[in-house]
Amino acid sequence: MTDDDSESISIQSNFKLPENITQEDIEKKAIDLVRLAISNNVSDVPLKREEIRKKVIKDNMRIFPVVFEEAQKILRNDYCMELVEYPTRGTKIHSLNKETQRDTQVSQASTSTQTQNQIKRSKKYTTKSYILRSLIPGNFRKGFIFEKEDYQLHGLLIIILCLIYVNGNHLKEDALYKYLEKFGISKNKSHKVFGDVEKNISQFTQKGYLEKEKSVVPNEEIFYNYKWGPRALVEFPENNLLKFVKGFYNENEHEQIVRELIRSRGIN
């Protein structure tokens, strides 16, 4: 039995269903929520709690926690996915510390559960909307992405997120494109794999993977900075990005790389 199953049982055992609601009703609503979450995921738009109320719960929001946990069990067991609350804009990447480094040995599913619990406990994450996150380990995901173009753009996104990450989650727009040029990716020239890179970055921003902030310095030109967006915080655990960056270096350099990342991000 997983920790999530125990939590679900605890919630249900301490909750008395209204007289007009049966366990069969809860299970049916849970299935309806799973269908709604999966169909909503296609549009890349967060699923609002209010939409769940109107289309699934309808008349009694007291049963929401029980329905939600039942739906989570179905999503995790049958689809290897889970619903997580959508972070607010401006939420920071979790700091690298000893606990984070130790957690790199934990499986993605376990890390996912820990991250979700942290989100639940943090008021700044209260957006009353949710998105689906895959629990499939990264090395198995390629076979589940049917469109070659989607997989290629996923690679571009990871490169950009890593560049922002190693620069303290705060990278000027012109600096981002200078970094990309070192990968043979030009802002003003269509790439043979990624196509119009500027357009793709704009789409990443619209979908919530990136945040683009306008900065104005007195007596200087206006410039823009890129940061991780809310969706990136949910779908790309910091531990996974750290592993990805370390993969470019020899194993005997990993410890030094972690120290450099901590130093570059201003973390003691």
From TrEMBL:
Region of interest called Disordered, as start-end residue ranges on this chain: 98-121
Superkingdom of source: Eukaryota
Low complexity bias spans: 104-116
GO cellular component labels: nucleus
GO BP, sorted A to Z: DNA repair
Residue ranges occupied by any MAGE domain in the UniProt entry: 26-245
InterPro entries according to UniProt: MAGE (IPR037445), MAGE_WH1 (IPR041898), MAGE_WH2 (IPR041899), MHD_dom (IPR002190)
One Pfam family here: MAGE
PANTHER family, alphabetized: MELANOMA-ASSOCIATED ANTIGEN MAGE ANTIGEN (PTHR11736), NSE3 HOMOLOG, SMC5-SMC6 COMPLEX COMPONENT (PTHR11736:SF14)
The protein's name in its UniProt record: MAGE-domain-containing protein
Organism: Piromyces finnis
